[in-house]
Structures are given as C-alpha cells and as structure tokens.
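Researcher: Quick test of sequence recovery. Tokens follow.
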C-alpha cells in the first residue's frame, strides 16, 4: 500500500507484544531493508506478563506455548525468506526444543523442526 500510493515515509514505529518485537523487526527489514524503524512494546517483566495472561485467560501455559511457537518462527521464517535472519542463542534454542518436547507445541508449525 505504501508503494502503491507512493507515500514518502521516513520513519516507522511498530508496536507489538513484547515477545513479537524481534520477528516484527526481522519482517520489516525483509520488506524494507533500507528503511529504519523503531519496534516497541509494553515494558513488563516476564513473570508479570505470565501472571496477567493467566488472570485474563485462565492459564499461563498457553502463553508459554505461544512463545515456543514464536521462537521457532524466528528461525523457520528466515529459512523460508519471510524475514531476515535473527541470531538465536543456543540456550534459547535448547529451551525451545525442551519446552516443545514437554508439550508446549500447540503453535509449532512443523513438528520435528531442528
């Protein structure tokens, strides 16, 4: 739409959930590699985020499953060309694998992803 309407935009602000910031940035940079953007979200500690999520949705385990799926998407979407590659620390990837194995795999796109 930006290109279609020939809009001259020189700054972008992306507001998303805290755990979605990196994927938003990676997707933005894939689409607009030469543009700058600021990605932001609510500043909240993870334990408070899970507590609030549980209060609203009845259980924090769904939030963990969402985060597990999001970690997989950071890697998988870069491989598929949907976003730029993001460095995922080994400890994070190992935690992803362990949590997926423990059943937090509702939002995993391709089971068995390594």
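Model:
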């Amino acid at each position: 739409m930006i290109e279609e309407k020939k809009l001259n935009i020189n700054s972008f602000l992306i507001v998303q959930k805290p755990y979605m910031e990196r994927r938003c940035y990676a997707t933005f940079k894939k689409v607009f590699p030469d543009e700058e953007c600021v990605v932001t979200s609510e500043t909240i500690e993870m334990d408070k985020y899970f507590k609030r999520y549980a209060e609203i949705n009845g259980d924090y385990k769904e939030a963990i499953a969402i985060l597990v799926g999001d970690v997989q998407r950071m890697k998988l979407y870069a491989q598929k060309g949907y976003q730029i590659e993001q460095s995922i620390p080994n400890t994070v990837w190992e935690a992803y694998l362990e949590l997926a194995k423990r059943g937090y795999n509702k939002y995993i796109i391709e089971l068995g992803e390594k």
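The longest helix spans residues 61-79.
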